[in-house]
Design goal:
about 750 residues; Rossmann fold; six-stranded antiparallel β-sheet; six-stranded mixed β-sheet; rod-shaped; binds adenosine-5'-triphosphate
């Protein structure tokens, strides 16, 4: 049992609330014509979401609301019509709802607005439709066969028939799924287009940004290279400057020291020259000496002359004496008295006191001569004596002179010695002065040389200062151009190779130019923007990939659903045909009936597609209009062959035969895939007694799988119902509902 009860209130002829309890597999609804039986069947269609007011026999929604009955009294009109259908969900015919009971309610208001409630909560029509499709209660109403509609399955187009059969086979749920998938697919494709267009939109910007980033990265690479070079360069340069400074300071120390020494030497040398001014006095002294020597020489000359004179006088005396002696020779052998000789000896002996030999000699000679002279003639003897005396005097004089000469000579020699000494000392002093002068010149010359050396070193120092200034400038510039890292270096080993440093400098300059040319500015922002844009693009790509995956999955699902639909449909047709054949031959006592799949003509295809579109619009609020092409061009044809008759066309069947055929087909369909309930509104109207019996058997058989609500005037049918409701027309033309017994029912039905 799937149905529990139906509450009708304000719907059509049911002015007041009327409730039907479906406590039996077969519920019969009986009543006179126009009492409102069909309104009950329509109440089912209404609550299940029927959108066609026409099929509910109205023009507007308002027509479904109790309109006040015969008197048309405005006050008695209902403002709303509501129908509530309560299902027993203990067997979970609605698997998604975890309740024992499921209540569907639809309310229509006079302003034509509808409300749908599921277990008291407002839901959308779509939700109701999906829920019902899942429970095999379809929108085509294959289980609600309204009055005179049994024939619809025969009169429908092959396409419509297919629809009905598909619905009855429970394929609607797959179709829903398929339509849902197609809708999703479209949405996915739409999204893909949007994403692609977004990607296209950002592509040029991204390209631009990437180029910028490339530039920045290149610049960064150059900057890093520059940093390395700078560090090396600065380390070398700093080291060089330091070592050069030290070297030049060192180099300068020597010359400075030498300059100091030279200065002292110069002072000393000058002092020597100042001292040499005492030279003049020495010169005076020498002049004095020279004069004295000259005087000594003059004196010597005088003495010499006197000596010469004395010697001449002495020689003259000698000659006189010699002449006398010659004269006296002749007196040579004159005898002399011994006494006289002894007298001479005695006088000679007195000369022993004379110390001077020469004088003594002279005295001796003179004495002897005097002796001799006395013994010769008197005159001659006195002359010799006189001459000899003169001779002695002259000799003595001469001796004195000679002594004087010696003395003067000695004096002279002494003076000469003094002179020479003085002269030597002057010469010596002159030498010292010359040395001092030489020294001064030499010192000055050296000073000039050393000054030159100092100047050269200072020049180098000056050059080094400029190098240092350039180095400092470069440091600042490097900091600005390549960042702080560039100026963080450590001096390791300094190479003396300035050429390599120059080379490094050239390379640095070249990179600097290239870096400036690169003009990559605003690095951080561009990088960030690029990263963001890239991330966005990556996100879009991923999104696209996800969408593509979803698209593929949807396509796969659609294909699967198509295959499943095709398979289920075909196997369903086979099963239906088997049942159809059974029911048909049961009804007609033989013959043949068959549903066959046929392909529609092209034109039909189009119109059918339009029909389907409409159908979809009804179910989906018009969203699925384009999905029709997917539905395939196949339809269902019914072919029958009555026993003992040549009739094959449906058109040629009698009304009764048509009714039997359609019932056979409807029952066959319901048998293959039983819906939870079936409502048959006077489907049995055209049956004769014999067929009514067969019909009765068939519905009993059918009620094993589906709950049946039968609106009928047929006694046979009534007899098969477990519960019977009678519908009568009460006051104001409103329908009244009452549970009745079979006998009553027979009465009521009349
Ligand atoms: P039959 O056995 O002849 O088929 P029935 O019992 O099926 O008759 P229905 O067709 O269900 O009768 O009922 C039709 C009756 O419902 C009509 O009398 C009609 O006036 C009444 N009816 C339909 N709509 C309304 C409405 N909005 N307000 C009041 N009565 C209505």
């Amino acid at each position: 049992m799937y149905l529990k009860s139906l509450e009708i209130s304000g719907f059509k002829s049911f002015a007041k609330k009327a409730t039907l309890h479906f406590t039996s597999p077969i519920t019969g609804i009986v009543g006179p014509n126009g009492s409102g039986k069909s309104n009950v069947a329509e109440a089912f269609s209404f609550v299940l979401g029927e959108q066609s007011i026409k099929s509910l026999r109205g023009k507007r929604g308002e027509d479904l609301i109790w309109n006040g009955g015969i008197k048309q009294s405005f006050e008695l009109r209902a403002n709303r019509a509501s129908v509530k259908l309560i299902f027993d969900n203990s067997r979970r015919i609605f698997p998604t709802i975890d309740f024992e009971e499921v209540t569907l309610e639809r309310i229509v208001h006079r302003d034509n607005t509808n409300e749908y409630l599921l277990n008291g909560s407002q839901v959308r029509l779509k939700d109701i439709a999906e829920l019902l499709a899942g429970a095999h209660i379809g929108a085509t109403g294959h289980h609600i066969i309204s009055q005179g509609a049994a024939d619809r399955i025969l009169s429908a187009s092959i396409r419509e028939r297919r629809e009905m059969i598909e619905d009855a086979l429970g394929l609607k749920v797959y179709q829903w799924k398929k339509l849902e998938s197609i809708r999703k697919l479209e949405k996915t494709e739409e999204n893909m287009k949007q994403v692609e267009s977004l990607r296209r939109e950002i592509a040029p910007h991204l390209k631009f940004l990437k180029k910028q980033v490339e530039k920045i990265e290149k610049a960064d690479l150059m900057r890093r290279e520059l940093i390395t070079l700078y560090q090396e360069y600065f380390a070398q340069e700093d080291g060089y400057i330091r070592s050069e400074k030290a070297r030049l300071a060192d180099e300068l120390a020597g010359p400075h020291r030498e300059m100091d020494e030279l200065e002292s030497a110069l002072i000393r040398a000058k002092e020597v020259l100042v001292t040499s001014k005492g030279q003049d006095e020495t010169s005076k002294e020498i002049l004095d000496l020279e004069k004295q020597i000259s005087a000594a020489r003059d004196e010597k000359d005088t003495i010499m002359r006197e000596l010469g004179r004395l010697e001449g006088e002495i020689a003259a005396g000698k000659r006189v004496i010699e002449k006398e002696i010659e004269k006296q020779k002749r007196d040579e052998f004159k005898t002399v008295y011994l006494k006289d000789v002894e007298e001479v000896i005695a006088s000679l002996e007195s000369f022993s006191a004379i110390t001077d030999i020469k004088m003594m000699w002279n005295e001796v000679i003179s004495t002897l001569r005097n002796f001799v002279a006395r013994h010769r003639g008197n005159t001659q003897t006195s002359l010799i004596g006189e001459v000899e005396a003169d001779g002695v005097r002259l000799g003595q004089e001469k001796m004195a002179r000679e002594a004087a000469y010696t003395e003067v000579s000695e004096q002279e020699a002494k003076l000469i010695r003094q002179y020479q000494e003085l002269k030597y000392s002057i010469e010596k002093e002159k030498d010292t002065n010359r040395e001092a002068e030489k020294d001064v010149f030499r010192i000055i010359a050296r000073q000039n040389e050393v000054r030159g050396i100092i100047a050269s070193i200072q020049n180098q120092q000056g050059a080094l200062v400029r190098v240092e200034e350039a180095f400092k400038r470069e440091l600042t510039e490097a900091g600005i151009m390549a960042g702080r890292d560039a100026v963080h270096y450590s001096i390791t080993s300094v190479l003396s190779d300035r050429h390599a440093q120059e080379e490094r400098r050239h390379v640095i300059e070249r990179i600097k130019i290239r870096l400036e040319d690169a003009g990559a500015s605003g690095g951080h922002e561009v990088l960030k923007e690029c990263r963001d844009t890239e991330e966005r693009d990556v996100f879009l790509v991923r999104e696209l990939a996800d969408l593509e995956l979803a698209r593929k999955e949807l396509l796969k699902l659609i294909t699967e659903l198509d295959q499943r639909l095709d398979h289920e449909f075909k196997s369903g047709i086979v099963k239906i045909n088997s049942e159809f054949q059974k029911f048909f031959s049961l009804m007609f006592g033989g013959g043949k009936a068959e549903l066959s799949v046929i392909t529609e003509s092209r034109r039909r295809k189009k119109s059918d597609a339009e029909d389907l579109g409409e159908l979809l619009r009804e179910g989906q609020g018009g969203e699925m209009a384009e999905a029709v092409d997917e539905q395939g061009p196949e339809g269902l044809e019914v072919t029958v062959s009555l026993p003992k008759k040549k009739v094959k066309s449906l058109m040629m069947l009698s009304g009764g035969e048509r009714a039997l055929t359609s019932i056979a087909l409807l029952f066959a369909v319901s048998q293959v895939n039983p819906p939870p309930f079936i409502i048959l509104d006077e489907t049995d109207a055209a049956l004769d007694e014999a067929n009514s019996k067969k019909y009765g058997d068939m519905i009993e058989n059918l009620s094993k799988h589906s709950q049946l609500i039968l609106i009928t005037h047929n006694r046979e049918t009534m007899s098969r119902a477990g519960v019977l409701y009678g519908v009568t027309v009460g006051a104001e033309g409103a329908s009244r509902l009452l549970s009745i017994a079979f006998e009553e029912a027979v009465q009521v039905a009349k």
